[in-house]
């Protein structure tokens, strides 16, 4: 079955490569892209149960405030980087494919506990089930940040292949979800509304893409100039949008002029894992990309505890989220909170459970 799916996917991909891109073929290309996305999904989640578990050492329990996955080709220095950052021993050797299972490590940085995962080396074709790529990328989907570790001597070829593999598994790097409203309904056909001019999508293309998913009644709102791929991402509904840093390792093997050029590339940090060069810069960038919010607690009549903050993700930073992080019963006994810091006008300020906290605020919970 996977071989058949692969064959059909290859045919669709070849057809797309041969088709010229213009207004007349946009409808046909949209249909092929939708077909390809469906086939890829079937490859990732094959029909029928049975057939073994996830594989030894792949499903690692999530611990700490954030999870970072190290993704890269075999022998680019992922294991050396992890062992030097976290003091974890992940087998290191000069030949390829040394790491065969997921090796976890933990670092503490600015009060946050961050889990690091050294994932086995990715090979080209991982998204099509080659090697152990499917399990590797499945773990990568659960990360809050992905570090793509590249060899500075051959970065661009590797970068493109890894990006393609991750894209094939529905991981979108350093991008935001498309601004598309999509709602299925029982009757009334396809109702398309565009709030701005569209260069690629028209009613016919949208209808043909949705027909491929057997959707014939839906409201679609395009709030920005979007592509067929964006619409397919929204319809599939299983895409994850993860920030990514490209770590260019082995800078001890290049000149200073080359290093200056690398520094100008967006989302990149040049390092030497072996010599531990530029780790401060890497950790600072990791912190910026994780966007974690630290909240300090203050028991009544005592000084704030600055040693162990409660760390929240930037998308969930209300007083209610803070209470839930400590214990779910705390919100039932919640009366109000006193907050000191940049999120309030007065220090302290009395706030309710819907108040949004900011990094390094101090909070005191008053119970009923």
Provide the number of structural domains.
3
Order of neighbouring strands in the sheet with most strands: 2-3-1-4-10-11
Helical content stands at: 25-40%
Shape: globular
Structural class: alpha/beta
What is the rounded Rg? 24 Å
- CATH architecture identity of the largest domain: 3-Layer(aba) Sandwich
What's the total count of β strands?
Answer: 16
Q: Termini, distance in Å?
A: 60 Å
Order of helices and strands: HHEHEEHEHEEEHEHEEHEHEEHEEE
The CATH homologous superfamily of the largest domain is named P-loop containing nucleotide triphosphate hydrolases
Which CATH class of the largest domain? Alpha Beta
Major β-sheet annotation = 6 strands, mixed
Point out poorly predicted stretches. 48-57, 89-100
Using the coordinates shown, work out and report the CATH topology of the largest domain.
Rossmann fold
**Portion in beta strands:** 15-25%
What is the mean pLDDT?
Answer: 82
Number of helices: 10
GO cellular component, one term: cytoplasm
Domain TGS: 291-367
Domain OBG-type G: 66-291
Main location: cytoplasm
Question: Would you mind describing this structure in some detail?
Answer:
This protein is α/β, with parallel strands linked by helices. 31% of the residues lie in helices and 24% in strands. α2 packs parallel to α6 and α2 packs parallel to α7 (228-236). Mean pLDDT is 82; it is low at 48-57 and 89-100.
């Amino acid at each position: 079955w996977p071989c058949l799916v692969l064959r059909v996917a290859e045919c669709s991909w070849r057809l797309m490569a041969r088709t010229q891109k213009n207004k007349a073929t946009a409808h046909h290309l949209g249909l092929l892209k939708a077909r390809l996305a469906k086939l890829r999904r079937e490859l990732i989640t094959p029909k029928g149960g049975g057939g073994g578990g996830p594989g030894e050492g792949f499903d690692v329990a999530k611990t700490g405030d954030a999870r970072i996955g190290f993704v890269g080709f075999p022998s680019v220095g992922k294991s050396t980087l992890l062992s030097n950052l976290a003091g974890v021993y992940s087998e290191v050797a000069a030949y390829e494919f040394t790491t065969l299972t997921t090796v976890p490590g933990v670092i503490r940085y600015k009060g946050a506990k961050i889990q690091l995962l050294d994932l086995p080396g990715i090979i080209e074709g991982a998204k099509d089930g080659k090697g152990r790529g499917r399990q590797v990328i499945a773990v990568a989907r659960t990360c809050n940040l992905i570090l793509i570790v590249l060899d500075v001597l051959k970065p661009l070829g590797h970068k493109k292949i890894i990006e393609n593999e991750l894209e094939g598994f529905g991981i979108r790097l350093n991008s935001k979800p498309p601004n598309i409203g999509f709602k299925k309904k029982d009757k009334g056909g396809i109702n398309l509304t565009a709030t701005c001019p569209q260069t690629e999508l028209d009613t016919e293309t949208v209808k043909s893409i949705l027909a491929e998913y057997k959707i014939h009644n839906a409201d679609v709102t395009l709030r920005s100039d979007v592509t067929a791929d964006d619409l397919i991402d929204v319809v599939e509904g299983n895409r994850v949008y993860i920030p990514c840093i490209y770590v260019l390792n082995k800078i001890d093997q290049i000149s200073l002029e080359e290093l200056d050029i690398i520094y100008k590339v967006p989302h990149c940090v040049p390092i030497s894992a072996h010599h531990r060069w530029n780790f401060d810069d890497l950790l600072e960038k990791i912190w910026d990309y994780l966007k974690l919010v630290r909240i300090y607690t203050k028991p009544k009549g005592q000084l704030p505890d600055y040693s162990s903050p409660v760390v929240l993700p930037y998308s969930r930073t209300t007083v209610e989220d803070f209470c839930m992080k400590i214990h779910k019963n705390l919100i039932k006994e919640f009366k109000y909170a006193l907050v000191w810091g940049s999120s309030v006008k007065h220090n302290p300020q009395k706030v309710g459970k819907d108040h949004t906290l900011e990094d390094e605020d101090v909070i005191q919970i008053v119970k009923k």
